Structure formats: structure tokens, C-alpha cells
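Cellulose synthase, Linum tenue. C-alpha cells?
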Amino acid sequence: MEANAGLVAGSHNRNELVVIHGHEEIKPLKNLDGQFCEICGDQIGVTVEGDLFVACDECGFPVCRPCYEYERREGTQNCPQCKTRYKRLRGSARVPGDEDEEDVDDIEHEFNIEDEQERTKHLTEAMLHGKMTYGRGHDDEENSQFPPVITGIRSRPVSGEFPAGAYGDQTASSLHKRIHPYPVSEAGSARWDEKKEAGWKDRMDDWKLQQGNLGPEQEDDIDASMVDEARQPLSRKVPIASSKINPYRMIIVARLVILAFFLRYRILNPVHDAIGLWLTSIVCEIWFAFSWILDQFPKWFPIDRETYLDRLSLRYEREGEPNMLAPVDVFVCTVDPMKEPPLVTANTLLSILAVDYPVEKLSCYLSDDGASMCTFEAMSETAEFARKWVPFCKRHSIEPRAPEFYFSLKVDYLKDKVHPNFVKERRAMKREYEEFKVRVNAIVSKAQKVPAEGWIMQDGTPWPGNNTKDHPGMIQVFLGHSGGYDVEGNELPRLVYVSREKRPGFSHHKKAGAMNAMVRVSAVLTNAPFMLNLDCDHYINNSKAVREAMCFLMDIQTGKKICYVQFPQRFDGIDRNDRYANRNTVFFDINMKGLDGIQGPVYVGTGCVFRRQALYGYDPPKGPKRPKMVSCDCCPCFGRRKKKLAKPGANGEVASLEGVPMGSLLMLCSDMDSFPFTGVDDDKQLLMSHMNFEKKFGQSAIFVTSTLMEEGGVPPSSSPAALLKEAIHVISCGYEDKTEWGTELGWIYGSITEDILTGFKMHCRGWRSIYCMPKRPAFKGSAPINLSDRLNQVLRWALGSVEIFFSRHSPLLYGYKDGNLKWLERFAYVNTTVYPFTSLPLLAYCTLPAICLLTDKFIMPEISTFASLFFIALFLSIFTTGILELRWSGVSIEEWWRNEQFWVIGGVSAHLFAVVQGLLKVLAGIDTNFTVTSKATDDDDFGELYAFKWTTLLIPPTTILIINLVGVVAGVSDAINNGYQSWGPLFGKLFFAFWVIVHLYPFLKGLMGRQNRTPTIVVIWSVLLASIFSLLWVRIDPFVMKTKGPDTKKCGINC
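C-alpha cells:
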């Protein structure tokens, strides 16, 4: 499929597929003939029979005979395209390793004697074709001879590409030899041009000069130290220093003991004249202790990690050899261009396209769930600007590679720059970007006024997504091979626009449904084994971020058991003091490090690199099990040796399916009657279970086949038209019906915080996740700095947690069967679902000080000197725990304090509403729709921070503030009236009230307005002091003459 060849729109259910041409200008393609060697450029030549010479039977990569001989003698002996080992052709000398090819001799080629396994393999492939294409209509007539897909036995190399050609072309497929089916820069073929492979070509030229004097293999001149370095682990754990972590653990244990004694004292010493207040405080304190345990103990084993990018390059990017880094598909989601500005999304896409990773290994997919023509046109402009921006970034090693943030950096941009033309090119690129911004802003401005007849594309075709709730699926490839080149003629990563089909009456599952649609469409088109998902406002801040993740996922020893690598979220545009704890540093730098030492961090929705097989619901590979002890017949063993008896088959032989590839099992399952093996009933049941693959993944043959390719790649026998048809099919609105999508596969449905559920399911299967914190933040995004927007964001997260708590995936009840989830990891997941319920005791506890001040009662009796030690020890343990936690994590005390403040603010507002809405949804079925958080920024510095937006979430904290302030005034006035003896009990109540006021201070500051007005603290103290002095003035009443007379209390009124 060519880049910019047209927008493909269609509906599988309605049997519609159209290609809209003319909307984009088609770029001129390079002259591709495929009759020349892709390594040296010479003509390929013919064999003695007059046929074109074919070096590789698997993919037909164009290589001449001399290059083939050289590669077998002195190279890797592998095809540069499909990495398959070159077989010895007739007339070629044997080389070490040919004996492993079952000693196939020339005479067998002469008489075309096929191996029995090959015959069986073709038969099973035909079975698969017949099984997996039922109900899907007629396939290509000319390709009906062979199945359009094969399993993971042979697959096109994982390069993120698929075949070029017009949509109507049907490339003939075969499981035998193919004579150059793909041109130079088509799918899967590395671009062996002179710039990239100059070293390889020079070696080839030197070898050609010595063709007549070929000797034994030359000694490898690679430095031994480099070889040893390449064999080292790609990452390592960095444990926290024992001088920091051991005191921290000791204080945690001490605090737990002190807490137990404190609660015992509180329960055994009730306040009889305020039993209601005392009982309420006891319940609240017990809940706070329980939530503290859930939050604290998962932080028992915190660790750091470091990666070795140089070792990754030495192992997978050797000079003169094809790049062996694994391909990566990048997913970006957007919905509403008015709330998620296209310019913000464009910067994210540009940072992805310019990332430091092989272009043939990278594909970027944008999911437009709003089917907006504004987003589509902005993406078209982004693709055009990327042709200039990407080479500029790579030539000058620009960081970050999002132009908006690069050009706004207030740093010395000339640091470490040595290119003489850098200043001139930077100035020209900045002007290009400003022109690009103007064009995108014009598109957004035009989109705000929708024509009555709907949007019309440039060729006069109505925009298929005019009805955002009823439109076909749409796919367009903007960049990639066959037209996806930058201004310097270099290939660019693939950029694909996807808008899934939407129809009335179908449940589309919001973001989780969009992510699952992208998983399927990417599996059909590129099928990279790893996937990175980003929010539309999270750009790549570190161009080596993908390589950082590969250091874990591609590690030979531990990589196979890792389901995802999570990066911390970092944010731009937050006020200096971080008033509402938007950075969430305590969670990302403390809690997540602790989880990394157990079974891995939770998935937080963005900045995460997944293993595709883990999202498909597969279990992690099992390590070798220890042999079980068997008992003998002797008395001490108290048992007998048990022998497994195998049931003989029809011919008296026992057949076992252990070790049979999954792909072969699936093919054999297509026809049980012709099943070539006869074995035990358990094996037959195993085969029958594989017949549910289509029920599990859906009725797409190509997609189901892709799920079996652990190393990625797309079926080589699929034509471009077939791939497009399947891509439209897998994003149709009814594809997931009666499948396991959203329940066991992909992003899990059932909560608006689908990220927590998705990671939880993977951990329950036994997978492990990794937390990666490179020195330069990998990704950066935007956060709502306005108080109302921030509370609405927290409300959405808390509501999702409540939904999980009441669902069948509740961590309290789910995942015990297999025992794969570790207990401390379960504690963390339980804490993520129960923390909103803390709002109920927190609301009551924040109200108690005001009630105590107004009623002149207290929640505690008069304490003795011994009892006061419990309180002193508890407060000391709390502060010491916090200080030691900050010591090993590196979090500042200011960030920790902001987190504590917003815990109270969010607890008495957003979390409280989340609990109420969650209960309404569970008990009454009343669903609540959440709105997308606005990513738009204010031109004024932090102008959005001071904007006041009314929401009902502001009512509870405002009420708590007012009643506590009134309580302080009432308590002080009462003490003034009653004399000095009442000041002692008042101090405890005032301390309690001021604890609440200080925690709600950022909230009150948000209500007050901008900083250039009267400071908030001045207003608060002015009101308090004015009220207190007024009452004191009234009490003293100095201007009223005091008359002396008898004391009526002693002698009565009639004295």
C-alpha cells in the first residue's frame, strides 16, 4: 500500500470498500525494477537453465551470485531481508553449517524429490485456508491455489512495512520460490543503498578483486572486549543503599507497633459525654490505619534500574549486518480536536517520527475516534512538515524533538553544536514551523463552522465521517515506503491514520475500544512485536526512549517474561509551586519504585511499551521445572512409585504432541478427520481447544495468524488489497461480538480507567512489568493546572477505581486461582481500588474539629502523662517515616507536602463524588459520562491557573473550610468569655482545626484568584484576627462604665 495513495473507507458488515483519491498530492516514486543486486548494484544474472538467479527461496531478495557466495563464505550466511539462512544451491561449495540442512544433495534438486514433511505442511496450510475463510466471501481467484496466510513457520521479516503496489494489484503468492515479488524499498526489505551500507559494499568490492584466490575464513578482527561487552546484560537492578532503606523499614515496623498501641488506648478510653464524636473518630482512625498499611507495605522493596544502550547497539546493530532491533508500533489516540488541539497532537507525532530508532522498524498509528476532518487535514500537514523536521533533528541531535517545545526552550541552544550551518538551518526551520502552525490554526478555525451539507474533501467527495456516530472505518497511510521520503531522500517511518467504524446500537467502549482497534489494524499491516502507547499530548522528550525499553524487552535472560515497560509521567506548563500536585511525584518516584521491586509497576495509561503477545492473553513462558520426587516401594517413603501409562494408538504406537508448534496445531485442528496423528484423549482435547481461536480473536484469518507470530511480521503471501480488506474488517464495529476482546484480550473493558484493569490482568497471568526512569525524562505531557479541571480529572480516576472495586475483576476477589499475583502486588492493586472510599471517613474527620469547637466537646478524654507518650510517638513515627522516604527516593519535602495537601482536597471533593456516582451506577444503573480533559493552553503564563470555573466539586471543601473557620472564631470567643482556665482544652481543638485549614489552603488559594491581588494568607489571618479581636473588644468593652456593687452570685438578687 503506497503512502498518500488515498483514503480507504469501508464497512465489513455492509460489504463496502472505497478508495478516495485526489485528496492528497501523490509524491513521485523512485524507479524500481528489481533486476539488479540490492547489495552491489550489478545485474543479477541467470542460471545455467536460463532462469533468473534466486539466492533465497523464502523471500526472493534480489542478490547476485557473487554476493551470495561471499555472504555464505565470509558473512552471516543469512538473507539480508528475511534473515533465513542461505541454502546451498547447485554448483556452490559447501561451507560450515550446511550439514545442518539435512544434507540435501544436488541430485535431489534434479529430480524434485520433496520431503514428506513439506507435503504435510502444504496440506495443513490448505486446511487452515479452508477453515479460516468461511463466511468471508470470495478471495482472489488467481491466489486461490494457495492460502493467503500462513502461520509463524515463515513470515515476512519484521520491518513495519507491507507490500507496495496499487490497490487493485494481486501479487501471486506461493509457498515455493518467488522471483523478486517485492521491489527495492517494499515491505520487509532493508534499504541497502550506498549511504547506509557503504562498509558492506566496500568489503564486497575487495572480495571481488580476490575471487580467484579464495582461502579459508579470515580471522575476525573485532575487538574481544567489544564482543564481551555485547554479551553482558542490557540492564541491571540498582538496590537502594542499605544505610537508607534499613532505617526506613525499621521505622515502618515501629510505626505499626505504635499505631496498634494507640488504637488500643483510643478504644479502651471512651469519652462518655461525647460518645458519638468519639465513636466516629475511632472508626475513621481504624480506616486510616488500614489504608496506610495498603499504601506503605508495597514500598518495602524499592529499587532503581539502569540501562546500557551501548550494549544494545553492540548486540543488535553490528556494522555491516542488518539491524536486528525489534520493530515497534506506536499508538496515539485523540477524540475531539477542540479539546485536544491538533497542534498538540502534531507535536507528539513529529517527536515520534524523529525518534532515534531505525525507520524501517517504526510505525506510528493515530486513532481519530471523533472521525474529524480537521484532525485528518492537520495530520496531512504534519506528514508534509515531517519531511523537513525529521532530517533536521537527526542531523543536529535535537532534544526534545517536538518543535513547539524545542523552540520554546530558554536554554543555550548552541551548546554542543558544531555544525557550521546549524544557526542558519535552525532559523529556517523555526520559520518553517511557524508557517506550519499558521496552516494548522487555519484548519482548526475553519472546522469551528460546520457547513450544513457537511465537510467536502478536495476532490469533491463528502467526508465519510460527517456523522461522528455513524460512519465507516477509514485508513490512510501518510508516510512510509513508496513516497514516504524526507527532503534528503531518506525513508521515513510509517504514519497511518485510523478511524474505526461506528454505528448506532453498538457499544464502542471509548478509549479502550479505540486501543483494541489499533492493536488489530497494526497486527494486519505491520505486526510489530512491541507497542508503545501515548496520549496525544505526551510527546517523546528523550529520543532514545524506545531503546531504553528495548534494553529490558530484548534482554535474552529476562525479556521474555516482561509484559510492559512503564515510564514515569512528567509534565510541562505546571506552575512553579505545583499548587495542586499535578506532577504526582510521590506516586511516580516512590510508590512505583516500590512496586518495581515486587512484580512491577501498574500501568498508568500512557508512556508504556507493551509486548504484543501479553496483550493477546498469552501466559508468560515457563521456566524449567524441577523434577518431582517420586516414591519407591520401601516403607520410609510411605507410598509407591507412580508410572504414567500411555495409551497406544491405532497402530500400537504412542503419539505425543509435546513440542508441536502452535501454528501447526492450529492448522491441524481445521480438519480433525484428516488429523495425521493418533494419540491420547488429552491430546485430542488440546487440539479441539485450539479450534476456538477465531472465537477468541475474531473472524479474520490474517489477524488470527499474526497472533501466532511471536517475533512479529506479516504474512508474505497477502496482497495489498487483502491487507486493506482485513484492516477495514478488524476495525468494524461488530468485529468484537462474541469474542474475548475487552474481557481477556487487549485493553480490558468495564471501567473508565482501563489502564489499571489491563495491567492487573497481565500480572494475574504471571507476567512481570518494569519501571524505567532514564535520567532525561522519556515523555512529557500537559496537565490541567486549573482547580476545577484538576478535580474533574481526579474524579474520573477515582470513579474508575470504584467501578473496578464493584466489578468481577476486583483485586479483593480476582486472581487467586493460579496464584501468580504476589501478595504485596495485590495490596497495591487493592489500594488503587479502595482509596476513593477513604473520602467518607476523611470528610467526617475534617468536620469533627468544627463540631468540637462549637459544642465545647472533644473526641478524646483528658490524657495522662503516660498516655501522651502514645501521641508523641505516633507523630514522631509519622514524620520520621516521611523524612526517610524522601531520603531514599530523592523527592523534595515541598513535593511531599503538596501531595499531602491535595490528598485531603481530592478526598473531600472528587473522591467523595466518585463513591456516590459509583454506588448510583451499581445500585441504580445510572451511568455517568466523563469529559475529555482539555489540553488547550493559555497564551498567558499560567493564566489558566487563576481562572475560576464553578463546579459542584467545590461545595464540600468550601463548606468544611467555612465551618472550621467559624469554629475557630467560636472557640476563641468562648475561651475569652470563660476565662483563662478554658484555654488549655482549647489548644487541642484549635490544633485539630488548623490541621484541616492548612491542608485545604491550596484550595482556598484557588478560590481567591490571581497572585497580583492580596495574598490569600493575608486574607485568612485578617478575617480570623479581626473576628477574634472584635470579640475580645466586646468582652472587654472599655468605653462602658463598670458599676461596682454586690456579687449577685454569692448573696442573691435581693441582697
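The mean pLDDT is 76.
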